Amino acid sequence: MPPKPSKSKPDPAGPPSTPKTISGFTVLALTLPTLACLKFTTTSLSTPIKHCLYIKPHEPKTPSPDDAKSLFIANVPIDADEGSIRSLFQEHLGGAKVARVEFDASVPGGVVYKRWRSEGGVGNASAREEMRDAKKKGMAGGRDGGKEQRGKKRKRDEEIVAEGVIEDEKSALPKIWPAELRKSGSGAVVVFVDKASARGAMKEVKRAGKEGREVAWKGAEGLGVQRYKSHHHLQYPPKSVLQASITSYLTQFSTAELARNRLRSKLRSVPDEDGFITVVRGGRAGPARLEDAEKKKEELEERKKKNGVREDFYRFQMRERRKEKEGELRRKFEGDRRRVEEMRERRGKVRLEG
Amino acid sequence: MLQDGAYTAEVYKSNLFKLQVDELLQQLKPKYGKKEAPAEKAMWTLKTIIEQIPSRAPLSIPDSETALESEKIVIPFPNPRPPRDAKYKMQYDRPTSINAIGSYPLKTTTRAEDELAIDLAVTMPKSLFQEKDYLNHRYFYKRAFYLACLAAGIRGSKEHKFNASFELLNGNQLQPIIVIRPIRDGNADDFSASKCRIHILPALPDKMFLESKLRPDSNCIRPKDSNDKPESMRPKPTPFYNATVQSDASISPYLKFLHYSSSKCNAYKDACILGRTWLRQRGFGGSARNGGFGNFEWGTIIAILLQANLGDGVPPLSSGYSSYQLFKATLQFLATRDLIKAPYAFNSCYNSSDFSVSTAESTPIFFDGPRNINILFKMSPWSYERLRSEAELTVDMLGDSVFDQFDSTFILKANAPNYRYDTTLEVPLAAFGFDSMSETHDQDILQACRNMYFILARALTNRVTTISFHMPNQGSWPVTSRRPPEDQKRRILITFATNPSYANRTVDYGPTAENKKDAASFRQFWGEKAELRRFKDGSILESVVWSYKHNSTPVIQQIILFIIGKHFSAKLAGEAVFTTDRLGHLIPSGRIVGKSGIEPFSPLMTAFATLDKDIRGLEGFPLQIRHIIAADPQLRYSTVEFPTYASKTFPHTPASVVVQFEGSARWPDDLAAIQRTKIAFLLKVADLLSSSKSTYVTRVGLENPSQPSLNQAYLEIILPSSLSFRLRIHHDREATLLDRQLKDKSLDGFSRESSALALAVYKREFQHLPAHTQAMQSMCTRFPALSPSIRLTKRWFDSHLLSPHFSPVLIELLVVRTFLQPYPWPVPSCATTGFLRTLAWISRWDWRHNPLVIDFSTFLPAKGSTDLTGGNTKGLKAEDLDKIHLSFEAWRRIDPSMNRVVLFAASNIDPQGTTWTDRGMPEKVVAARLTSLARSATGLVREDDDRLMSRLAGEENRDILSNYFTAEALFIPQLKDYDVVIHISSDLSRAGEKRKESKFKNLQIQLESQELGDSQKIGYDPVELFARELQEVYGEALLWFWDPEALDVIAGLWNPSATAQRGFKVKSGWNSLPVNTYKQGQKNNQGETSHQVEIQINKGAILNEIGKLGGEIINTIEVR
After folding, report:
1. Which domain of life is it from (chain A) (predicted)?
2. What is the distance between the alpha carbons of residues A83 and A302, in angstroms, rounded to a whole number?
């Protein structure tokens, strides 16, 4: 929907009523608790404060089996968590049972993994096949949906990513925030236990909107100083916990590295449709070998310098160089002139300060 | 054009410079056209009037006075007044000639001033004078009478009306002149359209008096009682008097000489205009009080230097020089030749010893033989010293081959007191106790200034580099009255440029006790302050000892006031107003103590050195340590607050440190695994450290939880002194791996983007930050005032709530620029000047079109074992600068609306330019706010300078307070500019905490024992965390501002472009509210107004959420 820059004007007939639907979403207004610390100097903001959720059945571009039992909520409150969404449906919207909630954008965000391109791109046919194979086996992850959901859906111990490993409870570092926040204006997918509850919930939402039912929002608890205090505490986990997490990470890493190397070596040996073999990294290039390579490069350059034809050997070389220099001077002068002109245009006449 | 280009590069500083000079000249030169025509017509009219003035028969002095009194003219006799019984007669006769002289006919004048001055010389006929009239002011009395007659004639003219008044030529009381201004009546004689004034100068006919009588070493004012004295006593020479007579006699010879020079040398006129501009911007003028070095002196020196001196052969300047070369060479001459010690005599039979009298009075000599005059006779020792140092500075900056110094040479006002001087003393004229009605008043003041100059210079030695005296000029007075006495409400301004390394030295060593004569003089000079002391090296010396602690009276102030009190009067010392480093007190230990400004950080630096030693000394660590490098503003002396042992309740943020190990094949070759391995190493270090140093508290902290390829952990080390450090491991393989990912096309776009981001973070944290820290460390040791200036500037950013939007490094770069490219001023020597000049630069910085470029090279230490700058220690060259400009222009091309990069700051150690400013650090709105804040601050400073000037002129404001600048005014945030202001509850804000700390010492101890333990509390800052979360959660809807040092308010601005009412979008990025929008005129079939649903920002809900998120952190939220 394109934004309308046209002048808007409240309904002349009466006070502006809140729309019930917007772009296929049903609007659900939530009542927020009043806070003592808010001081408004303009009256327009002091009317009872509502938060608006936009809800509709979940219909992502790439469908998945869970879609039918999910609802999509846009504009979730920043303090929403699984518990608060669950109790929202439980207590106010007919008691549909929520299985889980997947949030769009959290603060701090979920772990971001680096992945290979899943389709198109430069990968050769067999590599793609390999990927597809892996996918069938539930190994490789293509990009789908939000970045956060990616890791969660798959079996972690089997998936291979381009770097590191998909962390599980053992290998992940301890969490440093007691709870996540949601970015303002972000969305969430609510997955219900079955299709019927999802449908029921949606109906209930529509009804609530029509009735103008008072739905109170109760967000997550434990905000304020308590949250920051516990973050500060969590930031420094016990050393033993850290040590254990690293150990299991590195074990999982060596398994994953083996699998990655298999993938790579396959890529290395198979030609693509055009008959080219993609050169990919293989084996180790330790720092020692890197230094050797640098040295060799330098040596080669040195030799080139000694044996090559000197640049001022022929007269035409000298002439050309002189020409080049003149051209350079000219270019520079023109450039400077342009700059001064631009300067003059910007600030007008030269004016002495004071 | 090509030749022009190739040519200018050599003869001018650079093309850019030359082009700008051309533009400047074109702009400044009057056109000699329509605008000037009325003035020229007025000159003709004046000439006709003067030619028609009838002669007057000889009159005695009393008669002449009464005669003119009847015409309502008071003869402007100089002091001392003529004796009433004088035997000589006053007389008026038609002038022999009337000529326009000076820069106007020479075409070397400029339109820079409000008013153009055109000089008209009226040559008096020889018949009026006698051979000996040069003696005892006789010439000047006759000249004054002549002038009065001219004034009477002009006033008496029936057809033409002009506004005539008297004024002193060059402030010299011997030489009154007539100033003609238009009467603004729109008549034929009204030349106000020309914006001119006309000076009428009486001139002596050439060769009227014997040249030998007016030499600098002859006496022309005979003592009254000379008859009683023995013949052998030669009366004291009167060089100033003689030169004044001679200057009247050489008016037309100079006109001829300068004309000759401008016809011989093409660039002469332009060089004069350049010099004129340069002098103007530095406040020099021909008048004695402005320094006695003005346009005439400048033009004459060039003209003379273009001539070969007798016996020297080649002239110092060649007539083939370009205007720029003439300008620079003349400055070079002024800068390098000490004309007091080595007078310059042009085509004259005199040698230096003939000038011994003048040089003894510290008057510089530039003697023009053919015209028999020392053209610098009006200069005082301080103005000459100032001229030389300004010339030296300019020669220096013209030698800069990288940066264009055009603006600092010609455009900037270099003598605004707040920027130019760090220390000033205002002395009310009345405190000297001179009789303003006395005939010797002018002489007395001048003499007092001289004495004070020499005494202060002796007392302050190398603590100051220049001392100068400033007094406003006396204006004109009506021809109908006597010259008014000097207004005693006026003040003399004495300015000092201090040397920060010595300014507050506490001991001055005098001569040894054995050296009786010197010791006696020392004792006499210092009085009761002088003491004989035995020093550590065994020597016994006369000495003076001062006491100095933080926030006590600065030593330099103690000395100045003491010495004025001793050698002048206690009244004078009491009424003098001393200012130095006026804003320094706004930061803790802002004033420089000892030799450098970095002293407050020494506990932390020592602790760092110890830690370095301890970590290197760990036994049993599997890897060798390559280096441990500081990467924290605290470790480069750049934080407002500095860590101390004492403040346990309010611990400092741990200082970041980077450790790098020797290469090893044991590292995994995968970014995520490298990060985990780092944690293992950190745990190992922690383990070994706590076993070898049981007093150290260590803990491993986690960071970047959602980016596994970024650094994941740091080791916090808390010393028993409560000073703490954060250690991160740098593994250089990361760069290669990230680089490889960037180029790896088999990775998906999203992953490559995140690699690019990670590479930028890696480079910033592990390469640029340590390199910058190292560079700043050496800068701060080199420039004593740098550290305090940075800290004061950061306080300014803090108090205007701007700090969260600027990398601290960027602020440091802005300040260090003021030190590395200080022009047109010398390097700042205290926090205040460093800060004010930085602000002034920011206010001028056109960041849309210009990058900030810093060249550390000249001052970086030689390559050491820990060379972080990657062999890039060599300085910037012109090509490098071009490259930086190119990449700057490239950024502006790809991101013209400046959504990603707004400010661009490059240096020789980081030519990339976006390291500290990428991704909206700051955003455009914030950068614009910075500029506007800096502009209003410089406006306040300028107002203060104006106030100072009016104070000097005696126009004191009745309200004493408003006479002085309230420094704090620059640091008050404008909270009313924000939409949302979150007031933090005072138990949690730092400002509140600090208040508590000072108020209730006992409560503080109780608080301490509560909750988190001492070391647990380090780095804990809930308000800062809250503010950062607000930024992350509402970053698109609101811009947040806060002061990280005080943390008492967090202010927000709705982002107007992002939060305007709009059509629905699933991911709008902000909390919205649906609204019905009705469109006028559009009706659907049923005749109803068609409507559409749009979304609007839901401010109420957002504020409600914020209130909940903050909880007890928030006291109130104010919404406008």
Report:
1. Eukaryota
2. 69
